[in-house]
Design goal:
Elements (H helix, E strand, L loop, with lengths): L13 E9 L50 E8 L4 E7 L1 H10 L13 H11 L8 H21 L3 H4 L8 E6 L3 H6 L5 E4 L7 H19 L5 E4 L6 H11 L4 E5 L7 H10 L6 E4 L5 H10 L5 E2 L8 H14 L3 E2 L5 H10 L6 E4 L26 E2 L16 E2 L6 H12 L12
Parallel strand pairs: 4-5, 4-11, 5-6, 6-7, 7-8, 8-9, 9-10
Antiparallel strand pairs: 1-2, 1-13, 2-3, 4-12
The chain binds magnesium ion.
Amino acid sequence: MAAAEGKTKIFPRIKCVRAYVSESKPEDQGADCHDVEDTHWINGYPTPIANPMSGYEQYASTRKSWGINALGTLVVEVEADDGTCGVGVTIGGVPGCYIVENHLSRFVEGQDPRDVELMWDQMFRATLNYGRKGLPIQCISAIDLALWDLLGKLRNEPVYALLGGKTKQRLPVYSTTARPDIAKQLGFVGAKIPCAYGPSDGDEGLKKNVEIFKRWRETVGPDFPLMLDCYMALTVPYTVKLARALEPLGLKWIEEFLPPDSYDGYREVREALRSSTVLLTTAEHEYSRYGYQLLLNSKCVDILQPDISWLGGITEARRIVAMASANDVLVIPHGSSIYSYHLQYAFRNCPLAEFINLSPKADKIVPYFGGLFPDEPLPSNGFIDLPDRPGFGVTLCKDSLRRPFQRSDEESRAQASKNATYKSQEKPHMPF
Ligand SMILES: [Mg+2]
């Protein structure tokens, strides 16, 4: 009888949502991996990186020249009534802060933090008129990650345990880098280099792309996996030509070769490379399960690469992982550090992590999120191990954070009480 009358643990409600930009030094990218110094390798210095703007001479030299880092870091904190805080990050900067504070906070403040599905659905539906992809979904992502972090802290468990526990003892990791030789020395299980030239550089550029890859193949030897990231820069015929030229040099996969909306183009490349051993990958700039469904339906890629801090957070990512598993497709997320690692430990079809080397010359391991989380776990000898800590297991450093659209405590309290005291008046009926 006792069994506490079946009573379960009482959870605090969410008291407040806060959104911050980061005003850190230029050498600290925070959550925007492109917000780096001008002479950083990931900006295309000194070797260029082909991108969707490469066809415009004025913007061809570096990626920051067209504002790849225009938005910058967005940090979201959700605080529960008991003072426990969860943290999520994404790209979004000041415009992202506006959306979180002035629109999305109403769906979160006052809610039970366990109701992640309800909050996600309300945020998604309420932004359909201006959202669906890009910034609004990135804002939803940061809130969702903060909710999972909060839930983990309230339950005193790591997020991977909340998702169903570990499916693997250790998670192997490859490095995205300008220096595959150093990646190999550091113990990574493979390396991915950026594609330097695109169609606007003509046949000469294509030749140089093959030479660069060949040089790295000779440097790292025949057995070290090498991949190529094309950052939405190519066309269907160019991709096919390049993949065929690199196949004999042991190209493991070719990534994001077309703009994300070229669903037909991805299918055409799949058809043309049907007999190739080169794997096709994409989707770091895809959003929500609706976008991923298009890619899965057309069976155009072998590996999906969602960014967990962009596509809709953990709540949406676990749906995509399930969809991918039913299609025999692997999920190897883009960057996103701890947010990826926890997801990947929890699901069988997420076999490998990406670590983007964000040191300016790609010669040492530095935290993916810069100074945001001083205790961010780092890869070592080819694996990423997670410490036994609740939530995503990291501590936010707030030194460089600013809250541009600060709302008063009264405003949050009023918003929270609307949700906390809401009672449904529904009469029983078939609700469809
Ligand atoms: Mg990529």
